[in-house]
Structures are given as C-alpha cells and as structure tokens.
Amino acid sequence: IFPGDAKAWKAAIAKNAETLKKDVETVEAQISHHVHTTLARAPFNVDELTMYQAAALSVRDRLIARWNETQTFHTQQRVKRVYYLSLEFLMGRQFDNAMLNLGVKKPYNDGLKQLGFNLEDVSDSERDMGLGNGGLGRLAACYLDSLATLDIPAFGYTLRYQQGIFRQIINSNGEQVEVPDPWLENTNPWEIPRLDAAVEIRLHGEATRGDNAKGAGTWTGGLEVLAVPYDIPVPGFGTKTTNNIRTWSARGKVSFDLAKFNAGDYEAAVREAEEAETITRVLYPNEASLRHATYILVQVELTHDFEQNFDKGKALRLKQQYLWVAASLHDICRRFRKLREPWTAFPDYNAIQLNDTHPTLAIPELMRILVDEEGQPWDEAWDIVRRTFGYTNHTGAALMTEALERWAVPLIEWLLPRHMQIIYDINAFFLEEVEKKFPNDRARLARMSLIEEGYPKMVRMAHLAVIGSHRVNGVAALHSRLVKQDLFPDFVEMFGQDRFTNVTNGITARRWLYQCNPQLAALITQALGTEEWILDLDKLKGLEKYARDKKFQKEWASIKQANRDRLCEYIESTTDVKVNRKALIDVQVKRIHEYKRQSLNILGVIFRYLTLKKLKPEERKRVVPRLSVFGGKAAPGYYMANINAVSKTINADKDIREHLSVVFLADYSVSLAEIIIPASDLSEHISTAGTEASGTSNMKFALNSGLLIGTLDGANIEIAEAIGDENVFFFGNVTEDVPRLRRAHQAGEAQYPPELMEVVDAIRSGMFGDGGVFEPLLNTIFGGKDYYLISDDFTSYLEAQRMVDVAFVDQSSWVEKTIHTTARMGRFASDRAVMQYADEIWNVEPVKIPDSA
Ligand code: 7GP
C-alpha cells in the first residue's frame, strides 16, 4: 500500500500521531508550531487574531486526520452515502464547536492560558461562516452535525460564496443598511482548498435530441467554467466520524486569453475569467425578493439577449444553481464509477436530498449524465433518478403556490439548452401517465404540468422535484399536512399518500445547549449524573423529578440570571440603552418578514407602554418589568424603522424605563443567537397560522429553559404536545380560520378591536415621532386587506401577554415550568430527525470508524 519504504512510512505515521495527543503540552507545541511556521510570527508579535488562527489551524490538523481516516474507511467499505444538497449552510463559528466535538476544549483552554491568552477572547476573533439566510441554512448545519455524530456517511454540497449574508447596520433613522460580509478576508482555517480537483462546467451552447424521443442527446459548445472544491470537515461529537461539506467556487477556465493578451488587450483577456468568478461572488439575500423579481420579469418584453433584458440577478442565480448541482453530481458519479457497479445500482450507494427546490436541476442533470453520457435507456434512467432523490419543502403552505420557485423557459433554454429538452421530455411522459390515470381531464393536466403557460412559459421547479423524488417531506406535522392539502393535492392523488411524509425539524443540542449554555449543561450533567443526554436528548426527562425541588430551582434560576446578565452587558455595550437586570426578557429574533409578524409584537409593546403610562407610579411597580428584544435581518430595501422609533420614545421616557425597554440588536447571526437564546425568559413565534413551515428557534429557546408565546403554527404545535399546553402561551386564530377571515377583510366586513385603535391613535398623535415610518404597516392592516390578520389576532395576543405577566409573578411555578420545558424537549433533537430521514427516506446505516482505521 505504501510507496517506497513501508517501515519509514509506518514510523512517520506513528510519530505524527503523537501530534494528536490531547495533553496540554502537545496542544501548546502544536499552537507554537503554527505560530512559528504557518503564520511566520515570533511570540512577542502574537495578537489575539494570530493566536486564534494558530489554535484553529492546530484543531484543523486534528480534524483532517480524522477526516482522512473516515473518507478512506467509507471508500474501502463501499458504504452508501447521503448527499445533502443545500444552497445554504449557516455554520456560525467553528472553533469552539470543533474543540467540544473533539473533546479537547480543556487542554486548549489551559494551554492558551499558559501562553498568555484567554480562550473566550481568542474565540471572539473568529468570523461567523454566514453562508445562509435563516432557518433553512441553519437546519442544514444542524443536520450535518447530527449526521457525523450518528456515524452516517454524508457529504454536504454547497457554494463557497465570497460574500455571505450581508452585515446589518442600523443608521440614525433606525433603518437597516446592508454592508458586505467579506468573511474570507482573513484566511479561513476551516477549509481545505482542492485546487487540483476542479470540475469543468458547461453553460449555453447547442443541444440535440436523440433519434427517438428517449434516445441520447448531445450538448456542445458554449462556455466552460471551472468549479473548484474547498472542503470543510465536520466532526461528530465523541466519535471518529468526520464528514465533509464540499463548497464550490467558480473560476474562469483559462486565466486569460493568450491571443488578446499578446495583442495588448489585457482587460479583455481577463474579463471572461472574471465573469465566471462572479457566479459564486455573493449569497442571494432572500427568496421573497427574488420571486418578486420574477413577477416583474414576466411582464418585460423578451429578446434573445437575456443578460441585458433579463434581470441579471435572476440569470446569475440560475447559473449558481446549475454550477453547484453539476459539480456535485460530477463528484458523486465519479465516486460511483470507481465501484464498477451497473448504473441501476446507483441508488444503493447514493441518497441525494434536495433541500428545497434550489437544487432541482440535479434531476435533469442526472438524466443527462445517464442517458447522454452513460447510454442508459431513458426509462431505466428515470427509475434510477426517482430512487435516488428526496425533496424537502420549507415554505409555509398557506403562502400558497406563488411562493414556489419557477424559472422562465427562455432563460433555461439560453443557459441550459439540453436540460430544457430533457425537462420537456420528462413532462411529456409524465403527462401521458396522468392522462392514463385521469382521462379527459385537461384542467388537471394544466395544473400538474411542469410548464406553466404564459408569457414567458415558466418551469415549476417544485413539480419537477415532486415527480423526480421517491419521497417528499414537510418540516412539521401541520406543514406536511398542508403540503399535501394545499400545495400538491393532485400529486397525492396521482402517486398516493406514501410518497408524502413528515419529518419534523430538529436542532443539535451540541451547539444549542452544550456549547451556548455551558452552565446549564453542567447543571444538567450534574443532576443526571451523566453526559449521555448530549447524545440522547430524551435523557433530559430525568430532570422532571427536580422540577419542584427548591434547591434545584434556585440553581436553575441563578444560571438564567447569569445568562440574562451577560445579554444585558452585551446590550449596554452595543447600544445606549440601560436595562433593568430583573426584567422579564421577551425576545423575537428571526428574519424580518410580514408573515412572522414582528409588527404584532411592536404594536403590543406600544399597547403595554400606553397601559403603563395610565398607571400611578406605585401601581407600575406591581407590573412585571419587561425588556423587549428584537433582532433579525430584513430583505434589502424593507425597513423596520418603526421598531426603532418605538424603542427611542420608550427608552427615553424616565417614568417608564424601569418597567419597559425595547432594543433592536443589529446584525443577528448564529453567534448572537448563542448569547440571546440562553438569556430569554419568553420568546415570540407568532406567525399567522399556516405560514411558518416549522420554526427551529422555538426549539432552541425551549431547550434553554425559555417559555414560548405563539400561534398554533409550525412546530409550536408539536412542542406544546411534548412539553404540555400549560407551558406554552398560545393565542390567535387557527389555520382553518384563515381563509374565512381573509375573505371578511376583502369584503370590508372585518372588525378592528379597540385596543388596536388605541395604539393607532397614539401613533398618529406623533408619540413615536413622525408617523411616516408606520404608514406602510398601518396601510397593510387598514388600507390593504390585513393579509396576515394582525387585527384578528391582536386582542388574544394581548390576553396571552397578560397571562405571561401573571405567571411570571409566581417565580417558583415559572421556574418549574421552565424545567419541565427543557426536560421534555428530547424529541426535537436533530439526531432524531436525521435518524428518521435515514430510515424512512435515505435507507442508510451508520458506519462506525474503528479505532484502528
Ligand atoms: C424556513 C422556514 O421558514 C422555517 O419555518 C423552517 O423552520 C426552516 O425553513 C427549516 O425548515 N425556510 C427558509 O429558511 C427558506 O429560505 C425558502 O425557505 C425556500
């Protein structure tokens, strides 16, 4: 196996293995190695950033060793792998997480101390890996942690955006300003460049069909660009398995055009290469704004020059999607060919999960590879495709079909001519089947077609994902029901119930308790007498017996207070607000979006303010003090200046300050969530029923002993089932009521509650400055049709908030509720969710990497 002298190899490997020992001296030696050689610094010249880089590189060495063993073992054993295709992985910071999963945090802590550094300060030098927008991207990160921890062979595939999610600054008008996130400015120690393993990707060009409808076609010409892989190792907790996230970076194929270069036209020589690189320059900020762009586009008159007439952003986004899936499938197929198995065995070795519709082009791409390149018969190829793919939908079904991704046919034809043919053929054969099963039903054919008629025609990516997958799942019980009922009812009739299933989302307790709330984790471990809960979250049940134990309650509460203090310090150091450390901390952090109804919250805050103003000073003292915390990024151009206007007035009011303060924390991120979530007493998950597919922060708050106020939406419902209705503050209309209420608004028959009118009067009186910043909001409620039913849920929301105040006064019973809440959150572990995917969708088994590997 070894080239050259086997003895020399073995001795070298054994010697090198010593660098992986976990004692403090070894850790210090490794760090100093990187300081001196990789970073070329002398000890007197080491600042925190350098120390972070050196320490991170030494952790990376350990990861790479395990990564190598894992990959080699998986290859030798010919295991079936899961490929998780996600356009977003919101990883956050890696250093702390990697140390904890590898079990080396203590020696790093001690080692750094001896070298003159504090671990926490060093960790703070790390930039978040912000390669995602929100829930979908963070879910992908949690699932990768679980896959590795559960020893399931898996790869994540995504793009290596040079700019991740924008950084958010709040200007003096209280508006969001987006600034770039150059996260790669300092070298990123967590990735391994594989510059030699680039993949060639074709765009544009000419396509031909085969002799008969199902024969092999061709695709030639056009432009070739390179996709260069960078690997990020993902270590499991307490296991050797180290999986991989492969991120693709776009490059020009020839770095410059020699002829032009020689002719002296230097700029033209590099232009093409630069254009290729723009493909992975930036993460797209938000689905909603892009969909909006689609609608505008539909009305634009089209010519053949799409770069000019099509929204450039749209074309670039499609290029991103294709470069990513084509490079990933190339990789997967290359690995499969080495097995020398027939293509019909492809699904026995590969399960590919489509994280929403963004990677749906993988379906026609795999058809193209199988039919055009590998000479497989069409029907067999289609069978292979269907057995390989699974599709997860993440959009709230009550937002309805217009929320689903669609691409203009002319755009696909221009960029991917062969894929457009394949999509048309898939559609033709599919509609034949529909016609067979439901003869003479033209309306049904039109509804189910992959192509939506219009000018231009559009490809419905969700339909393609449904017919090209063997399983389609939603992400919470309610959502999965709505996916069948509202989004794909025709497809349920066509394929039967079995193709549709539910996998309720989950979160990793490694990051979202063990890492972000170390004190609570330590208390739990002490009470349970074991750390097993980190791998088996149902073990938290064992806390139930302490729920009424006064001593335990006291320790539990004092940890919450410590976490609260930490958040208050953060607030006071980043804003000019002075906060009451005893206040109930009421949090809403998530993407800012109409359906999530931050507006309901802020209108409720105003009502609380008005109520407090009416009380005498001694009466106010009896009201539970509150600190309302908001955070979240809005789609570019969508401002939340109203929240900041309210906070300005309230925080400046000397009579009220003690009793109510409001802060908006800028630049919400995974790292900020790690500070906010452990500190929260109450968190808000208050979307219009039927619109939030699941929510995952609700799980994080509850796991960290915070109570929830929410609607009967997404995973809130299942959380309440698990922890007990009595521990959740529910309010508002249910999904079934939504259509009727919307109709009432449309017919002008809706009632507006007096509490809401009181709030509106206060706004209009100028109490919160120029009312202009509220106009868009008030317009959607009064001028428009109150699509998200703020007015319908307002009164019951206020009532639920009153119940919170009442409950909080009895601290012992409140703490008891929070202990029960944490104790019963086991089923929301991402480990459970991932095992469900493994059993019901992927059909994969864990593979333990032996110590001797
Ligand atoms: C989100 C959903 O809004 C959220 O409810 C869910 O918990 C999360 O996915 C994970 O399943 N969706 C997105 O983040 C998103 O970008 C567009 O959806 C396809």
From TrEMBL:
UniProt-recorded Gene Ontology molecular function terms: glycogen phosphorylase activity; pyridoxal phosphate binding
Keyword Glycoprotein: no
InterPro entries attached to this UniProt entry: Glycg_phsphrylas, Glyco_trans_35, Pyridoxal_P_attach_site
SUPFAM superfamilies: UDP-Glycosyltransferase/glycogen phosphorylase (SSF53756)
EC number: 2.4.1.1
Keywords attached to this entry: Allosteric enzyme, Carbohydrate metabolism, Glycosyltransferase, Pyridoxal phosphate, Transferase
Function field: Allosteric enzyme that catalyzes the rate-limiting step in glycogen catabolism, the phosphorolytic cleavage of glycogen to produce glucose-1-phosphate, and plays a central role in maintaining cellular and organismal glucose homeostasis.
Catalytic activity as recorded in UniProt: [(1->4)-alpha-D-glucosyl](n) + phosphate = [(1->4)-alpha-D-glucosyl](n-1) + alpha-D-glucose 1-phosphate
Entries under Gene3D superfamilies matching the protein: Glycogen Phosphorylase B
A GO-annotated cellular component: cytoplasm
GO biological process terms on file: glycogen catabolic process
Source organism of this protein record: Rhodotorula paludigena
Assigned protein family: Belongs to the glycogen phosphorylase family.
Enzyme class: transferase
Co-factor requirement: pyridoxal 5'-phosphate
The keyword Glycosyltransferase appears for this protein: yes
Record-listed N6-(pyridoxal phosphate)lysine modification sites: K700
Name of the protein: Alpha-1,4 glucan phosphorylase
